[in-house]
Amino acid sequence: MKKQISLCVVALILATFFIGQTAAAMEKPLLASLESKFGPVMSRDLDGVFEFTLSSPMTDVEMLLQMIEKEGWYVVTIAATIRDDGKLAIVLKGTQQRNTFSKKFATLQWLLKPGMLPWKDGELTDKMPVVTSVETDFSGNISILGQTRRSGLIFTHLFPMIERIEGLRSPFFARGTYSDSSDGRIMNYTVNCTW
């Protein structure tokens, strides 16, 4: 009986090792491609869905998303946040299995193109709200987060920009909170859209 249990334990350990090796091997070509273009990339296996964390200049986001697609990966979730240096901090989760959410990938590529949204690239002005982050899990909604000095600009300037992006519908002001800063009063807002 002990010999049978020992064999089962050994078989389980070997199976776990080979599954782990297969999962690690799956991510290596993509990881190598990303690191050759974007520098250090943190990755981890979350039970078959891989999380990648990296930085990218705004001008290279479209290329990043195309690289992922070219390597046969499908994005499950993505969060892109603008940093003070103008680069995007990107956390994405992907899998090599096609999923229903991957059809929305082209819309995301269009949304993250420079010039489609007013990404924060310096000081906040009274003339335009700025976008600081875009988040989605590719289900029914996508969230656009940002800052503004005048809340009305969200409706008069940002909403028309969102509505021109094919595939996005019904921008909805979800929340806004004000805070005081040395530059005056600033609203942090969230706008949700449907795919």
Written description of the protein model:
- With 195 residues, this protein is α+β, with helices and mostly antiparallel strands.
- The protein has a domain at 115-195: Dodecin subunit-like, CATH 3.30.1660.
- The chain is 34% helix and 36% strand.
- It contains four helices and eight strands.
- The chain has helices at 2-38, 61-70, 105-111, 152-163, and strands spanning 42-46, 49-57, 74-82, 87-95, 130-136, 141-148, 169-181, 184-194.
- Strands 1-2-4-3-5-6-8-7 form an eight-stranded antiparallel beta sheet, covered by helices on one side.
- Strand 3 and strand 4 (87-95) form a beta hairpin.
- The longest helix has 37 residues, at 2-38.
- The chain is globular.
- Mean pLDDT is 82; it is low at 1-25.
Give the helix/strand layout.
Layout: H1 2-38, E1 42-46, E2 49-57, H2 61-70, E3 74-82, E4 87-95, H3 105-111, E5 130-136, E6 141-148, H4 152-163, E7 169-181, E8 184-194
Antiparallel strand pairs: 1-2, 2-4, 3-4, 3-5, 5-6, 6-8, 7-8
Indicate the percent of residues in helices: 25-40%
Please identify the structural class as seen in this structure: alpha+beta
Largest sheet: number of strands, sense, barrel closure: 8 strands, antiparallel
Classify the beta-strand content into a percent band: 35-45%
Structure summary, number of beta strands: 8
Task: Characterize this entry briefly.
By secondary structure, this protein is of the alpha+beta class. The protein has four helices and eight strands; from the N terminus they run αββαββαββαββ.
